[in-house]
Amino acid sequence: MESQCWRQIKFVKDFILDDQTVQWSCGTLCCNGLYFTVGSCWDYNAALIVRFDVNLETFTKVSFPFDEYEVNFRGSLVNVSDELHFFVLHGAFDVSIDLWKLKGEEWIRILSVPDIDCIPLPIKCFVRYIGSI
Prior knowledge:
Elements (H helix, E strand, L loop, with lengths): L21 E3 L3 E3 L2 E8 L6 E7 L4 E5 L10 E8 L2 E8 L4 E9 L2 E11 L12 E2 L3
Parallel strand pairs: 6-10
Antiparallel strand pairs: 1-3, 2-3, 3-4, 4-5, 6-7, 7-8, 8-9
């Protein structure tokens, strides 16, 4: 019979994750991993992607598809037919849009929309999964 107690899992050590002012995105489940974007509330230049392997119960850092020190971006991780994608809006006034797909350990840009004039409403992406039923 399995134990009904919590297990302690070793966590990733990182200067961002050790800070109590970090914000974690909602998790996106894809290919046995739960992915999060993590960023500092105070330092917009500090951001990373964290993967929790649900089978191995380990945390790893995943590279960003672009320069993670870019100041003005908003993004969401999306599971599209069991492939991890990153939907990203760049800029504050003139906004550009990119869609990246993770292949192995590398990101591939699969869609890019150049600068769009200022959009008055905040753009948010809450889609976490797209696939067949």
